[in-house]
Write a structure and sequence with these properties.
424 residues, alpha/beta, two-stranded antiparallel ribbon
């Protein structure tokens, strides 16, 4: 990524309640628009920064011949009067395959595939790794609404909102993105109605993953996640990502940890639940255990059946099983058949050196995009490294588990006091 710049929301003395909006919530939208307008009246010298972000880029276009690259998007819409739904927002191609799920405009087949691969990829700061419009971008603006994870590249905002918009945003002390603003249009960029529904439909229809995704939850509707944690503890990972308040854990009923589930039956899980996330794993490499790795997989699958919500429920429910490269090939085939999803191999590579790897089965979106298969030589090397370094191996696995959990920020409340940069 590009450079990072520290920033904080300090334009006014008020806090803007700019939660991510659906156009299906007119009361909330009206309330926030009034709040936004009230706040912007006190911006004085910074007021023009807000105006430029909302300026219609058609007034800025004076070209008489088609420009190169993505600039053709504005030219085709403003000069040739082409419907923006007939142009790919990501690259400017006129060979549109379907519609962009978040904003009005088309998307071509190659960009559709890239969008599906990257839309649920996140950096460890909790924000998306790529632009929410084009799924590219080297330097990205991040939205400073507390519950938003979206990023936007300089090129997209300058082309679709208006020339110079990136400079204006860079000068702002606080910037709220196009999916969080109470109004739906900024230049050529028009937020789709019910964009969360549109994103789910787009993923389910166009994606190759047989697991359907749950609709993203509006920020004001998100609740703290309730976790059933089997075998390997992940309370520290959940705390570091903000899903658990530091020191809360099982004391407030948000995390139930079980090391041995041999005698656990359905009524026990139903009494402890309901749960939003079920996590389990084989023992880390380098640790001795009197149970075979397959036992962990079979027991996890049994408990998962007890914890799942009723058929047809729309309540987001996620599960994640991590194999620390211990399951036999036969066990892996069995796991794939039981979980009805292919395994994904995640690697921890630092300075071009493979530190660790795990196989995961999960219904959390975006994991397939992280898949990177191991060669037999790489797997043998890892096994050799971990025979004498079990604790280090466990710590490296923790990092891989955290990357799996990041997409859950779109569904559950998280607690974070860390200031975030305006762009990266």
């Amino acid at each position: 990524m590009g450079s990072r710049k520290n920033s904080s929301c300090s334009k006014t003395g008020e806090t803007w309640d700019l939660e991510t909006l659906d156009s299906s919530s007119p009361d909330s939208a009206n309330h926030l628009e009034e709040q936004w307008l009230k706040s912007t009246r006190s911006l004085s010298d910074d007021e023009h920064s807000v105006d430029v972000v909302l300026e219609d880029s058609r007034e800025l276009l004076s070209l008489t011949s088609p420009p190169p690259g993505r600039e053709i998007i504005r030219y085709e819409v403003t000069v040739n009067q082409r419907n923006i739904e007939d142009i790919c927002l990501c690259c400017g191609s006129l060979q549109v395959y379907t519609q962009h799920p978040l904003f009005e405009g088309g998307i071509c087949a190659p960009c559709k595939d890239i969008f599906l691969e990257t839309i649920f990829l996140y950096d460890m700061d909790g924000h998306q790794s790529y632009c929410s419009i084009c799924c590219f971008g080297k330097t990205l603006f991040i939205c400073e609404s507390p519950d938003c994870t979206r990023c936007y590249c300089f090129e997209c905002v300058d082309i679709l909102v208006g020339p110079g918009t990136s400079e204006r945003i860079s000068a702002m002390a606080c910037w709220v993105c196009f999916l969080c603003l109470p109004f739906t249009r900024s230049g050529l960029l028009q937020r789709r109605r019910k964009w969360r529904h549109q994103l789910k439909a787009f993923h389910d229809l166009e994606g190759s993953n047989p697991v359907k995704m749950y609709k993203i939850v509006s920020a004001w509707k998100r609740q703290p996640v309730r976790v059933l944690n089997l075998f390997g503890k992940i309370d520290k990972e959940l705390e570091s990502l903000g899903f658990l308040e530091s020191g809360s854990g099982s004391e407030e009923g948000r995390l139930k940890y079980l090391e041995d589930v041999t005698n656990v039956v359905r009524r026990d899980v139903e009494r402890w639940g309901p749960f939003d996330l079920v996590y389990g794993s084989t023992q880390p490499l380098g640790y001795s255990c009197n149970r075979c790795p397959g036992w962990y997989m079979f027991q996890f699958h049994r408990i998962l059946q007890y914890a799942q919500p009723p058929s047809g429920s729309q309540q987001p429910f996620f599960w994640l099983f991590v194999d620390n490269l211990l399951l036999t090939e036969d066990d892996q085939v069995t796991a794939t058949r039981f979980f009805q999803v292919e395994a994904v191999t995640l690697q921890d590579v630092r300075s071009r050196v493979l530190q660790n790897a795990v196989r995961v089965w999960s219904n959390i979106p975006g994991l397939k995009s992280k898949h990177s298969a191991l060669t037999p030589k790489e797997q043998q090397s890892l096994e050799t490294q971990t025979r004498t370094g079990g604790n280090m191996a466990a710590q490296k696995v923790d990092l891989l588990v955290k990357t799996c959990l990041l997409p859950l920020r779109e569904y559950f409340k998280y607690f974070s006091q860390n200031p975030l940069p305006l762009y990266k």
